[in-house]
Amino acid sequence: MTSPASAPRATGLPPRGLVLLLVGLTALRLGVAGLAGLVDDEAYYRLWSLHLAFGYLDHAPMVAWVIAAGRALAGEGSLGVRLFSPLATAVGSLMLWRAVALCEGRETATRAAVWFNAMVLIGAGSVLITPDSPSVFFWGATLWALAERTASRDPRWWLVVGVTAGLGLLSKYSVPFLGVGIGLWLMSTKETRRWFADARLWLGAAIALALFAPVVLWNAEHGWVSFAKQFGRATVEEWRPEKLGELIGVQLLLIGVPMVPFLVLGIRKVLVRRDPAGLLPLMTGIPFVAYLLFHSLHAGVEGNWPAPLYPSFAWLAAIGAADLAAAGATWGPRLRRLRAAVAPFGFGLVALLYLHVLVPLVVLPANRDPTAQMRGWEAFDRDLAALGERVGARVFGVVNYTLAAKLAVGLGAEAVAPFDERERWVDLPVRDPRRVCAPILYVDRAGRDPTAALAAHWRSVTPLGTLARRAGGKIVEDHPVWRLADPVDCDPAG
After folding, report:
1. Domain range summary for the chain, segments of one domain joined by +
2. Helix axes 40-49, 62-74, angle to 10 degrees
3. pTM given for the model
4. Which whole-number Å values give the CA distances from 315 to 97, 100, 476, in the listed order?
5. pLDDT tens-digit readout, 346-391
6. Staple partner for 5: which of 51, 250, 277, 358, CB 3.0–4.6 Å?
């Protein structure tokens, strides 16, 4: 039987049904993105976009750049902040289709694109903006360029690989694992090992590194803070192997339980075939998978961390779901029924999530429902501003970076004075509390009593009670408030 790798190169456009599905999903995602409030981290990344740079404490800069572009195109609301994500998911799905069509054929490609969109993590992530949004997009774009290189035998595609991989490096610090994976893939077959002799491969690598160089320079100028924060995660302080089970369980849900058997089958198929096209989605992801497994043995892995691998997961699962006749009379019908359930299962869970975000049937406190981060902020900001007017305070102090970012959305960054982690706020347009001589309205989260710490820097520390953030008539989160005045040491000139 002719393998997909030796089949004629795919031509033509994606099927009309797939295009219509992507148009409908994108319209839905744009609607949800525009109606739902920002989560804490999104508000923080929005703050970055007010001062564009080549680096920030937590991540590479691309997320700030795409937010700034979205705000310029669609305004200052949630849609402007998130605009990149729904559009990138749609374009990324078409690139995935093209890559798989080149390597495996049109039917498998269509299934891969549909299943990619049916993954719970992709469905949720496509209405939010985080560093994963550009990271997934450019990781997938690099796979597409590699598929073009493999199918066309045209080494000029290495230059495109360099550009997409370089933009990925500007998106998130996990993307270097893709570079290692490309090297592993090249070493996996005799044919691809010969490609190391092509100067254009190395020129592509140089392009990627050149695009990333400004981030390195920014870190060098800022005490390597971003690299130290992210790469310090690899340090082992204690072994906690139970976290591996958490990683696997969460990923089963976020990928979609019915899809996982086909992912396993796909891995088995490409290992049996051992052709460059089949090994491409597998080998390029192995280094990052290995790191995540290692990390889970000593610390928790957030559910979104493997997100850049999801295009490869959808690709491999679609390979596994193709040609089920070999499964035999017993397993074949069962696998076909399971295959038919993959997309409805994923889209159904995502639809329930969207519904809960927009019209929650039950309003839970913020510590029990992550989507509560999206609700009640407009009214809370109005109440806080009114309280500030009554007590003569127009600057709002906070000790939590996500709370600072949330208040900056409604009250303006120039009205917010973060009290901790000065390195986090380098060059960002927030106030330095050491330079504020006027009264400050200090806002905290429930369960903390900072009175003693505040009294060391302000002679007047007056508790003003608690302001509640509400949604659906219920309290989502309480925030104790203090008025600070008469600072012990204030230098408005810095």
Report:
1. 4-357, 371-487
2. 80
3. 0.92
4. 9, 7, 40
5. 999 999 999 999 998 887 777 788 888 888 999 999 999 999 999 9
6. 277
